[in-house]
Specification:
The protein has 118 residues and is mainly α. It has helices spanning 14-29, 49-56, 61-70, 84-89, 91-108; strands spanning 4-6, 9-11. The protein is built from 5 helices and 2 strands, in the order ββααααα.
Length: 118
């Protein structure tokens, strides 16, 4: 190589070649700190205190039932291939146990062992 383009300037100096190449590859393979991110700078409206408290209140079995029964029955098939139409159809049989599993998830942050898929 006789010359190289470094930051828009043609360079013929061999030592500058080497420095530019090293700098280039160090930039490619050096781990950078992740960019900092703050949701507060997005300009989103803030929730009123009353509304924010609603987000942390305990979920009830009635709310779970209402949420499940209000969903489109043909959407979101589970791992077993069953969609919400099936769950709605058998709600009178499995609704209470299903709701208990959802409540356990909200309390512990983990799926109950009976339905844990990992």
């Amino acid at each position: 190589m006789e010359k190289i383009l470094i930051q828009g300037k043609v360079e013929t100096n061999l030592s500058l070649f080497k420095k530019a190449i090293v700098k280039h590859f160090k930039g490619l393979y050096t781990r950078r700190a992740p960019a900092s991110f703050s949701i507060t700078n997005l300009g989103l409206p803030r929730l009123k205190e009353v509304r924010s408290q609603e987000l942390i209140k305990e979920v009830t079995m009635e709310e779970i039932k209402e949420a499940v029964l209000s969903c489109n029955p043909t959407k979101a098939p589970g791992l077993d291939g069953f969609n919400l139409k099936c769950l709605k159809h058998v709600w009178s049989v499995v609704g209470e146990e299903f709701s208990k599993c959802i409540l356990e998830f909200f309390e512990t942050g983990k799926l109950p062992a009976a339905i844990n898929t990992t």
